Fold this protein.
Amino acid sequence: MAIISYLGIVKLESVTDIKKFVDAEMVEFEKKFKQSMKSNVALLDRVTHYIIKRKGKQLRPMFVFISAKMFGPVQEATYVGASLIELLHTATLVHDDVVDDSFERRGFFSLNALWKNKIAVLVGDFLLSKGLILSVNHNEFDQLRIVTSAVQQMSEGELLQMEKARKLNITEEVYYEIIRQKTAVLLASCCACGAASQKQSKEVIEQMRLFGELTGMAFQIKDDLFDYGAGKDIGKPTGIDIRERKMTLPLIYTLNNVDRATKRSIINTVKNDNEDTKKVKEVIDLVIKNGGIKYATEKMHTYKNKALEVIKPFPDSDAKKALEFLVNYTVEREK
């Protein structure tokens, strides 16, 4: 995948190329983000140092900076927004690991695995408070409103999924609402904060928020497809979502398009035999056979195309082309 930019970027083929576009901003962000996590408590500093050293691809701050650059040079307020999002998001991940009793994240031990639940929960609370203080100290109340609303919706989405998972009665509409709240709202807040940091109008901020939300929807559907082997680096289907009784789009579509006996068999496997590798594979094969992968892929591209339409009216620029690349990357990535 390559995109030739309108103004100056010669070639974009990977997230690494996008990072070069915001390299100076990301270097400065790393310093500011590290500083924002400082504490007088030695234990906290050890834990936060561990967090910083194991950050992922950092797509979220990249979306903040590129969205801001759509409207001019990055401002100090943009760094505040990027740090705010990373602080609050990291806090939710720490708490999620405790809730899920998970001892691993991105191939490394989770905080609760190393320091136990009590410390992990308190560190999550500390990060939340740091995000609130950061935004208040810089008078960035619009960005604080955007991000705290996202955190609220993420919690609601998680609870909605838990509620529905008990009965396995998630409709396609409910699925979209769950992934919107759990995943898409955070990406939406990144893009909205980027615009808000440039003091754009409410209409423009809403446009960027919608762009981020649609991109986030496509991103999550792509993640769900990986469970069925839809990626070169994945190779064989994993069936992890089925084992965790997660009702994703390929499975929901299949349940709506098979006969009653097959539907009952699938539900029984998800409910009672989700640790049986052979039966999980049978469900995966049924999903593939009945067009679940094809349907979810089409929906993913629908969201991608809608996202591209949202930013189409904005003037052509390197930042716009970078955002277009990232939208395409969300659906074409292999892991």
Observations:
- The first strand starts at residue 104 and ends at 105.
